[in-house]
């Protein structure tokens, strides 16, 4: 590792809002709960506002700061660049980092367009020849209950997949007076609910089933077309002034899908489901049973085995906190549970282990491109009214 003790991995992160805070927690925590082959060293935090950047670096635990990401990706003490910026800068930062010889972790969705995602995959494939690793941050794959769902499907416990029912329900902009943010600006975010949260359930459906979405028929809607311009913003919400501006992305997306294994899917992503805060709901129905998950009860997986005696059959409520469940043995005793932030730590663990072993932990940039193609197909279908293949 250039510029570092061989047992260390110098990390530079660009961006320090909600995702930057979650990633910082993971870089700090992973070596304290997992025996890592390389110890992450939080070398440098990148951002544009010097005062806010310095405060964030102190709060989140970064050793130094850079106000230009171009300088950050070129530093000898940085071995990995973590891209936590809005989607319109993912491609330029990730490609520059790969071309500078760094490993890359890039937040989801991979990019704002298929064309950008394709250039990122090409850069990652070239970098892989030099021993570099590139990963995209679909962290919900690393929730233990999701890992168990995938294992049950892979083991044939639900048989052939017939239905994929996937929802991502939030309500943080259901209030029409919630101010604008970059997530509501197409030039920054690429799309709205579709790319921001729909991307997660697309990736999860493909991850759990091991299948691909082969065609879609989609519908996008923007319920509130203009909002107050934010005077201050943090995380997902903020304060608006009297000035107003346009919403240029979808507020909600719904689409039908055909799966590569012959099943069919219904997908929904919305920020207008009042009362649902971060409800990622997946139910996979197969020829021998079903699995069902809701992130708002994230330590539980529901499993129905059609072979059970009908007199006592029913969904089993599996509390996924046993030491034999993925990642759990490193945390707390059975029944104590994990939270949103733990999946980010698991992401760091698998990434660092992959770098040390010279392997390429999923989701790779190619997996990110597969999601991007589905997002693009849904947008084209919504525009044309026709079924579209990703
Ligand atoms: C906002 O919808 C958001 O922060 C997403 O951008 C994240 O990917 C998701 O994990 C939580 O909600």
Topology, please?
Blueprint: E1 8-14, H1 18-33, E2 39-46, H2 50-60, E3 64-66, H3 69-74, E4 80-83, H4 90-99, E5 103-106, H5 114-128, E6 134-136, H6 144-154, E7 161-169, H7 186-189, H8 193-209, E8 213-221, E9 226-234, E10 237-246, E11 252-259, E12 264-270, E13 279-286, E14 289-294, E15 300-305, E16 316-319, H9 340-357, H10 365-384
Helix pairs in contact: 1-9, 4-5, 5-10, 6-8, 8-10
Keywords: NAD, Oxidoreductase
Domain Gfo/Idh/MocA-like oxidoreductase N-terminal: 10-133
Organism: Cellulosimicrobium composti
Q: What does the model show?
A:
Residues 10-133 form the Gfo/Idh/MocA-like oxidoreductase N-terminal domain. With 390 residues, this protein is of the alpha/beta class. The chain is 33% helix and 27% strand. The strands form three sheets. The chain has an eight-stranded mixed sheet with strand order 8-11-12-7-13-14-15-16. A six-stranded parallel sheet has the order 3-2-1-4-5-6, sandwiched between helices. A two-stranded antiparallel sheet has the order 9-10. It is globular, with a radius of gyration of 21 Å. The chain starts with 7 loop residues before the first strand and ends in a 6-residue tail after the last helix.
Looking at this protein, list some descriptive labels.
390 residues; globular; alpha/beta; Dihydrodipicolinate Reductase, domain 2; 6-stranded parallel sheet; binds alpha-L-sorbopyranose; oxidoreductase; Rossmann fold
Order of helices and strands: EHEHEHEHEHEHEHHEEEEEEEEEHH
* Ligands present: alpha-L-sorbopyranose
Computed structural class: alpha/beta
Number of domains: 2
Our count of helices gives: 10
Percentage of helical residues?
Answer: 25-40%
How much of the sequence is in beta strands? 25-35%
């Amino acid at each position: 590792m250039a510029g570092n003790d061989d047992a260390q991995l110098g990390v530079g992160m660009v961006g320090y809002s909600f995702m930057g805070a979650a990633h910082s927690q993971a870089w700090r925590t992973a070596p304290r709960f997992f025996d890592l082959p390389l110890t992450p060293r939080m070398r440098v935090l990148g951002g544009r506002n010097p005062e806010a950047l310095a405060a964030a670096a102190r709060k989140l635990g970064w050793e130094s700061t850079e106000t230009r990401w171009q300088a950050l990706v070129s530093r000898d003490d940085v071995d990995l660049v973590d891209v936590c910026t809005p989607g319109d800068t993912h491609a330029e930062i990730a490609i520059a980092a790969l071309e500078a010889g760094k490993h890359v972790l890039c937040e989801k969705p991979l990019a704002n367009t298929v064309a950008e995602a394709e250039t990122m995959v090409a850069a990652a494939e070239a970098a892989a020849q030099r021993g570099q690793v590139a990963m995209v941050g679909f962290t919900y794959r690393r929730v233990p209950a999701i890992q168990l769902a995938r294992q049950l499907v892979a083991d044939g416990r639900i048989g052939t997949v017939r239905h994929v029912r996937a929802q991502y329900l939030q309500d943080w902009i259901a209030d029409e007076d919630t101010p604008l943010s970059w997530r509501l600006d197409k030039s920054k975010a690429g799309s709205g609910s579709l790319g921001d949260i729909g991307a997660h359930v697309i990736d999860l459906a493909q991850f759990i089933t091991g299948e691909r979405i082969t065609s879609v028929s989609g519908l996008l809607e923007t319920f509130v077309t203009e909002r107050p311009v934010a005077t201050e913003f943090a995380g997902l919400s903020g304060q608006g002034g009297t000035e107003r501006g346009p919403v240029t992305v979808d507020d909600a997306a719904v689409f039908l899908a055909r799966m590569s294994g012959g099943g069919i899917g219904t997908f929904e992503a919305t920020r207008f489901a009042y009362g649902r805060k971060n409800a990622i709901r997946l139910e996979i129905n197969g020829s021998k049973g079903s699995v069902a998950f809701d992130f708002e009860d994230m330590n539980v997986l529901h499993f129905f085995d059609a072979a059970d005696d009908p007199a006592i059959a029913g969904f089993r409520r599996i509390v996924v906190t046993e030491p034999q469940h993925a990642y759990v043995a490193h945390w707390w005793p059975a029944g104590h549970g994990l939270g949103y932030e733990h999946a980010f730590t698991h992401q760091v663990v698998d990434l660092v282990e992959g770098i040390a072993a010279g392997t390429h932990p999923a989701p790779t940039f190619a997996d990110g491109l597969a999601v991007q193609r589905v997002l693009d197909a849904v947008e084209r279908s919504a525009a044309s009214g026709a079924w579209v293949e990703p």
